[in-house]
Amino acid sequence: MNTAHPATPRRRQLSVMFAIYVVLLAWIVLWKLQIPYVGIGPLRAVKIVPFVASGTAGASAPLEVLANLLFFLPFGLYLGLLVPSWHWWRSASVIAGASLLCEVTQYLLKIGSADVSDLIANTARGLIGIGLFALVRRAHQARTEIIIMRICVIGTILGLLAAGLFLASPVRYAPPRDVWVSDDHQSHRMDQGS
């Protein structure tokens, strides 16, 4: 089965918007809209038991769950547009792989904890996007591509605007990157050489 599509201006625009979306998604998930960095100190946590607090990792906050819904749901919509001939399980595998890549990257770069809850929830959110695509296709058939493309383009542009507004704001929510707490609960700064 051939999934290639001719490179029309609309498909090129869609591909560019998807690339922007993926970069924005990675920036939000990995660095929380901060300047990309590699972590310091001993942070390399893996939370294996999903959806409950364990060890040093707490349960996911409701606002975080809602925000992640907004971040991963478009993945399913974009895949529905880019590869409409794929079965849902193939798209779900790509979404799960992208989420796994985010979790592994957080672990390797020491910039957050790798969390099985996130892997499961992000895949489910992408599946919701695939489901929404299927519902729109069932309801609007020939107009599906244009409807979903407009939603994706508007959503991606709004995401970029929101990121720009956040960057312009003096408020920052991420912990300082030059400080870490060691196992003995001592605070260390990079510039102190400890």
From TrEMBL:
<feature type="transmembrane region" description="Helical">
    <location>
        <begin position="14"/>
        <end position="33"/>
    </location>
</feature>
<dbReference type="InterPro" id="IPR006976">
    <property type="entry name" value="VanZ-like"/>
</dbReference>
<feature type="transmembrane region" description="Helical">
    <location>
        <begin position="147"/>
        <end position="168"/>
    </location>
</feature>
<keyword id="KW-0812">Transmembrane</keyword>
<dbReference type="InterPro" id="IPR053150">
    <property type="entry name" value="Teicoplanin_resist-assoc"/>
</dbReference>
<protein>
    <recommendedName>
        <fullName>VanZ-like domain-containing protein</fullName>
    </recommendedName>
</protein>
<keyword id="KW-1133">Transmembrane helix</keyword>
<feature type="transmembrane region" description="Helical">
    <location>
        <begin position="69"/>
        <end position="89"/>
    </location>
</feature>
<feature type="domain" description="VanZ-like">
    <location>
        <begin position="18"/>
        <end position="136"/>
    </location>
</feature>
<dbReference type="Pfam" id="PF04892">
    <property type="entry name" value="VanZ"/>
</dbReference>
<keyword id="KW-0472">Membrane</keyword>
